[in-house]
Specification:
This protein is of the alpha+beta class. It is built from eleven helices and five strands; from the N terminus they run αααααααβββααββαα. 45% of the residues lie in helices and 17% in strands.
Length: 258
């Protein structure tokens, strides 16, 4: 009834696991979720920090962040993008303050002038256990043992371990580690999540056990997705997450349709 997509990404796998119906509405019905304040905030912060690490080491300063943020804000018309949002949680000034706070909190987690990165926004398009995956690694560094350290900026809240397991929190980076080894033969030693808004770094060793669990999740999700495509049955996973779902809000989710 439905043709399975040519590829999956770690985020689309997460979406299908969270709610197959949400995956269907987004991917097959082509009803896209609108951009949000928090999505724009994350994208803008990522953009500025990517440019920061493109500078020579000695030029990676807070003043450089201010300059880059101003240049990119104008060049990429960020004010217009924020003003065009359907919903906002503050003024343009609030957005700028939140973004700059996230950026400068980076210095609580590392010293940019002393940080070596080998790749940024590295595109990976490969297969893991026969499942084609596409993704972009925020930051990649190669250590002295020729193993990768994969890291990712986050501008949201630090996950509560009571509601989200370590394997779930790091699934995206574990998937990237599997993709990197499948694509380039480079093993990964460590994963890092840099929660800028809270000046918190979460780290995880990319052990064979952790990678095996992630690989199993990828394979199982693809099998379940293929089955849903063949039967047309994409069930609604009704949880507390529904309260933040765009498709419930616009009244097209079957579980909440009125």
């Amino acid at each position: 009834m439905f043709t399975p997509p040519d590829y999956l990404s770690p985020s689309s796998i997460r979406t299908f696991i969270d709610c197959p119906q949400k995956f269907k509405i987004n991917r097959f019905d082509k009803v896209k979720e609108p951009s949000t304040w928090h999505m724009h905030l994350g994208t803008f912060v990522h953009e500025v920090l990517e440019h920061l690490y493109g500078l020579p080491h000695e030029e990676r300063t807070v003043d450089a962040v201010k300059t880059l943020a101003g240049q990119l804000w104008t060049a990429n018309e960020w004010e217009q993008k924020v003003l065009a949002l359907e919903e906002t949680v503050g003024s343009i000034k609030d957005f700028k303050v939140a973004a700059f706070t996230n950026m400068v909190n980076l210095w609580d987690l590392e010293e940019p002038a002393e940080t070596d990165l080998d790749e940024m926004e590295l595109k990976l398009d490969t297969e893991v256990e026969g499942v084609r995956l596409l993704g972009f690694i925020d930051r990649l560094a190669i250590d002295d043992e020729q193993s990768a350290i994969i890291s990712d900026y986050k501008t949201g809240k630090v996950p509560n371990a009571q509601y989200k397991t370590e394997d779930e929190t790091f699934f995206q980076l574990l998937a990237y580690a599997l993709m990197l080894e499948a694509s380039d033969g480079v093993p990964t030693s460590k994963l890092e999540l840099l929660y800028l808004s809270h000046s918190t770094k979460l780290e995880l060793a990319a052990t064979p056990v952790k990678l095996s669990i992630a690989k199993g999740t990828i394979v199982e999700t693809k099998e379940n997705l293929d089955k849903a495509c063949s039967t047309g049955e994409f069930h609604c996973n009704v949880t507390n997450l529904c309260n933040w779902c765009h498709y419930k809000k616009i009244n097209i989710c079957p579980a909440h349709k009125q």
